[in-house]
Automatic annotation (TrEMBL):
InterPro entries (UniProt xref): RimK-rel_E_lig_ATP-grasp (IPR039523)
Domain Alpha-L-glutamate ligase-related protein ATP-grasp: 186-343
Official protein name in the record: Sugar-transfer associated ATP-grasp
Species, as recorded: Sphingobacterium lactis
Taxonomy, superkingdom: Bacteria
Organism lineage: Bacteria, Pseudomonadati, Bacteroidota, Sphingobacteriia, Sphingobacteriales
């Protein structure tokens, strides 16, 4: 009887999560121009799409497919319905709560064997206690801050949950630093990474980061499944939620012909620099994938990882942030290609 009750509660929880995620995506689609849903897909293709994704036992929404088609002109049945990914697939690929440990920016230089890939830290604050870069307790933070010759500007970040640029501060002086450290109970103070000159020519108002998505394959090793580059516009951060735009990158490192903003508005060139996206090749693309895979292969328990990467002024790929929950699939899909590509059927069978 107890097992039956537990089973019923789990089933209710799964259905509730699916309902909430479905409503959230419906609400977001309402903010997108209606013209991006008017170009219809033949009914026989929609039926085939519904059949493919109904294996999860849920009503299949077609808005995701329709939007991606209206943006790209391409029909790909591997386009993942966003609510199914968010409520079902991601949670089954990454079921362990313990992986949240790897989203803590304080541990990057401690856990990973290639610490030079991550931004250099000056000090940490964890649950109100201060630590130096080697995790020795700082007994007098005032004396510590006054003794360090900081190379301003610095970056101050909340230890986790910096989605959309929330909890990120650019520090230009000791006075700013004092104000910043009082704002967060847990944080990390890091160097400011200077970005590659070529990427800076597209947008120099903020770091242009790469969202690199990786999947653990049947061999147990992670492989990159897609990349997208994010740009700030009009002085914004590069995050889509902060007003930035995102451009998909193909398997050869070539930019998609257009980028999109949060509301799926298309940009064929950067609105500030006027640099066209079509045909642009990401510098050191192969090195990006190797660096990202090296990082991901040091993370146990997870099967899907999204890394925020950037290319510095010495042409070295650096990892800014590790994302393991609440990952987004639309950056790749808005270019008309399924998030998991030719691995889609394998993922369906693994998570159904």
């Amino acid at each position: 009887m107890i097992n039956l009750i537990k089973s019923e509660l789990e089933n209710f929880k799964r259905n509730f999560i699916f309902y909430k995620r479905t409503q959230a995506f419906k609400k977001r689609y309402q903010t997108i121009k209606k013209e991006l849903f008017v170009k219809n897909i033949p009914e026989n293709i929609l039926q085939e799409y519904r059949k493919k994704w109904s294996i999860f036992g849920k009503k299949v929404e077609t808005e995701t497919l329709l939007l991606c088609y209206n943006l790209s002109g391409k029909v790909d049945l591997n386009i993942v319905p966003e609510n199914i990914f968010s409520a079902i697939i991601e949670t089954k690929l990454n079921p362990h709560k313990e992986i949240a440990f790897f989203e803590l920016k304080n541990v990057y230089e401690k856990w990973f064997n290639n610490l030079e890939v991550f931004p250099k830290s000056y000090f940490h604050k964890i649950e109100g206690t201060y630590y130096d870069r080697d995790f020795n307790i700082i007994e007098d933070i005032s004396q510590f801050l006054n003794s360090i010759d900081f190379n301003y500007p610095l970056i101050l970040k909340s230890s986790r949950d910096t989605y959309g640029g929330e909890g990120v501060r650019k520090i230009k002086s000791l006075e700013d630093l004092w104000t910043g450290i009082e704002e967060f109970r847990s944080l990390v103070c890091q160097e400011l990474i200077i970005q590659n000159e070529s990427l800076g020519s597209i947008n120099n108002s903020s770091i242009n980061s790469i969202r690199t998505c990786l999947l653990r394959t049947e061999t147990g090793e992670f492989k990159v499944i897609n990349n997208s580059i994010r740009f700030g516009i009009n002085g914004s951060l590069d995050n889509e939620t902060s007003g930035g735009i995102v451009c998909s990158i193909d398997e050869n490192g070539i930019f998609n012909e257009y980028a999109v903003n949060k509301y799926a508005q298309k940009y064929f060139s950067h609105p500030n620099s006027n640099v066209e996206f079509k045909g642009y090749k990401l510098p050191f693309y192969e090195s990006l994938n190797l660096t990202a895979e090296n990082i991901a292969n040091q993370i146990p328990l997870a099967n899907l990882i999204s890394l925020d990467m950037c290319l510095d002024n010495e042409n070295i790929w650096r990892c800014i942030e590790i994302n393991l929950n609440g990952q987004t699939i639309r950056f790749a899909q808005y270019a008309g290609k399924g998030f998991f590509g030719n691995l889609t059927n394998q993922i369906i069978n693994k998570t159904k």
